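Structure in, sequence out. Go:
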């Protein structure tokens, strides 16, 4: 497979990273950072689909392990390697490189059938990770299992008259997390125990059938059939299951490097996002800790991925959404259709208050800006620098949906570069106006830009000075 030339693999020998690798930092920060492990969290800084999958794939060259920490098969992470496309939903993108291990952490909700369908994809692509004997892919024994009644309840609730439609992916994600928090869920370890599985499905099915029928008039699911199907699936996933918290901590102890792969985006986070139009998990940096069993002092840095503009799938507030032909242009050039559901993504201009907010709640140190090439034909590029709410300029993100309704975005308009950028891999070769756009984002968001993506392929990427050193 093709290697991105600018990146050096970090920690190739398994030796701990030398302190000198962090010389870009100064003073006290440097001292603190030297004690950190060789690990980074990478997450979406917007409402998902920022291009995390592509960036994780590029960075995985430098990491021993990539660990997914939240969400489920509501995610769709597309990677293109030498023109060949592969879209993963549950399996961390790192396993596309045979030398990199993939971990599905305890914070994930796992649909065993979806997992096995993805394993087949890896097999069809000739990738060793599909075979548990390769020891490359692992599932946490503490991850929660999505069962058919989760989908049943979600579908009924999303379509019921009078209920607030979130525009979910209808994969059963929310109801599975509800059961987890309600202490009523089934964990992967329990899925592997036939008698426990039978009892759990019998009791849960009875309860969910009763609720769904009473509330939504839904036809009941058959627990016997469900048990037989899930007992079969359990046998197939069993060889991948392990205590991944222990695996990750031991790997860090041994000097190996771990990249924590986020799904969704900061604004879809259950606590910090645009509630209730969010997903049901912690997609922010904190989720990497609770979702893998690795403590916060072991995390070296946080990398936020942002598009050069913004998209959103599903319902919910979107202050900079574009309603004219520019939105259509971005959708068409960016191929902005959901990888999971095929829904057209809503498009908007870059929203700096939201980016600053994401940087704040995640302690983001580095940004990766993707899809620069999509803006090549824009004459002008408005960027929202502040909000006006009730006549007052502000940067504070409203906590409630009513607050979002009163936002009047304040734009600064930059000139478009009107030149092709796709495939450019050196910063100096970017048009001057594209460089100015990036410098504006860095200045206004107070984060350093570590990488820039100019196309969907692995090689259509550039790494900025300092970022490479940070990683090794
Ligand atoms: P994720 O969920 O954050 O991994 O993002 P998705 O994979 O759902 O959506 C991002 C889409 O943009 C995918 O189809 C990628 O192949 C594509 N993509 C990523 N980076 C770039 C880029 O720099 N330019 C273009 N044109 N497409 C990109
Ligand atoms: P990746 O990892 C974009 C959105 C759904 C819906 C809301 C709740 O590819 O960036 P859910 O099924 O999670 O209960 O739906 O969250 N959503 C995403 N939007 N990218 C994603 O993942 C998403 N995962 C969930 O569209 O609005
Ligand atoms: Mg996606």
């Amino acid at each position: 497979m093709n290697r991105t030339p600018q990146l050096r693999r970090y920690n190739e020998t398994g030796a701990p990273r030398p302190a000198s690798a962090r010389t870009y930092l100064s003073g006290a920060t440097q001292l603190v950072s030297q004690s950190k492990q060789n690990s980074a969290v990478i997450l979406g800084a917007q409402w998902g689909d920022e291009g995390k999958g592509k960036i994780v794939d590029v960075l995985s060259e430098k990491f021993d392990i990539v660990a997914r920490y939240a969400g489920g098969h509501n995610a769709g992470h597309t990677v293109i390697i030498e023109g060949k496309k592969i879209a993963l939903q549950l399996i961390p993108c790192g396993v596309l490189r045979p030398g990199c291990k993939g971990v599905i952490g305890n914070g994930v909700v796992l649909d065993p059938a979806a997992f096995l369908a993805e394993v087949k994809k890896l097999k069809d692509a000739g990738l060793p990770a599909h075979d548990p004997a390769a020891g490359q892919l692992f599932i946490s024994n503490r991850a929660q299992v999505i069962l058919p009644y989760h989908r049943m309840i979600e579908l009924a609730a999303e379509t019921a008259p009078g209920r607030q439609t979130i525009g979910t992916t209808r994969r059963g994600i929310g109801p599975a997390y509800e059961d987890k928090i309600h202490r009523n869920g089934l964990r992967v370890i329990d899925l592997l125990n036939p008698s426990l599985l039978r009892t759990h499905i019998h009791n849960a099915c009875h309860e969910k059938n009763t609720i769904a029928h009473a509330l939504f008039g839904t036809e009941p699911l058959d627990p016997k059939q469900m048990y037989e199907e899930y007992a079969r699936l359990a046998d197939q996933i069993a060889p991948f299951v392990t205590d991944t918290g222990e695996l990750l901590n031991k790997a860090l102890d041994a000097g190996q490097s771990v990249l924590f792969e986020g799904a969704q985006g900061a604004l879809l986070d259950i606590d910090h996002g645009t509630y209730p139009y969010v997903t049901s998990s912690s997609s922010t940096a904190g989720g990497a800790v609770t979702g893998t069993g690795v403590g916060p002092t072991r995390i070296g840095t946080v990398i936020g991925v942002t598009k050069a503009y913004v998209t959103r799938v599903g319902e919910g507030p979107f202050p900079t959404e574009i309603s004219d032909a520019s939105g259509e242009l971005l959708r068409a050039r960016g191929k902005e259709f959901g990888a999971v559901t095929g829904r057209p993504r809503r498009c908007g201009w870059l929203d700096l208050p939201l980016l600053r907010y994401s940087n704040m709640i995640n302690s983001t140190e580095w940004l990766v800006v993707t899809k620069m090439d999509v803006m090549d034909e824009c004459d002008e590029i408005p960027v929202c620098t502040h909000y006006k709410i009730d006549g007052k300029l502000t940067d504070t993100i409203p906590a409630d949906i009513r607050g979002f309704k009163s936002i009047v975005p304040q734009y600064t308009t930059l000139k478009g570069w009107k030149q092709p950028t796709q495939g450019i891999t050196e910063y100096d070769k970017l048009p001057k106006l594209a460089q100015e756009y990036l410098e504006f984002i860095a200045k206004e968001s107070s984060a350093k830009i570590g990488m820039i993506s100019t196309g969907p392929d692995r090689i259509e990427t550039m790494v900025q000075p300092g970022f490479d050193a940070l990683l090794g």
